[in-house]
Amino acid sequence: MCRSIKTLRPPALPEEATEEEIRAAALQYVRKVSGFRAPAAHNQEVFDRAVEAVARATAELLDDLEVRGRTARQAG
């Protein structure tokens, strides 16, 4: 687990995670998995696509999670 990725669901986060927070977590994940802080120019497109895919999956996960009978986005 990348230690700089924080939990984005309530109650760990008092309010709904912002798009910026979700994208930052996705970026940290892709950096960790790829081993690159910043990809070379020839890998930039695939790196960016991966960040966007992880961000979309994260947003969907947070939308669908149930926390004590409510979805995570409603729990705040």
UniProtKB/TrEMBL annotation:
InterPro entries: DUF2277 (IPR018735). It comes from the Bacteria. Pfam families: DUF2277. This is DUF2277 domain-containing protein. It comes from Streptomyces adustus.
